[in-house]
Amino acid sequence: MGSDKKLLMKHLPDKLNGVVKPKNCDSVVKICKDFDKIYRMMNECDPSPDRIEEFFELASACGMLFVSLGGEVSGFGKQHVTPYMHCLVYHVPNFMLRHNGIRKFTGQDNNDCIIILSSNHTYTMLFNINYMCTFSFCVYKGVEKNNDDVRKFHLTKSNKWDAPKDILLVSKRLQFTSQHEREPRAYMKRNGEYWSTEIKEARSKRRKLFDTPCPESQPNNPERVLDINGLSVLEIKQELKELGVKTRARKLEKLQEILKRALEDQ
Question: Which of 95, 109, 111, 174 has the fewest CB atoms below 10 angstroms from its CB?
Answer without folding.
Answer: 109
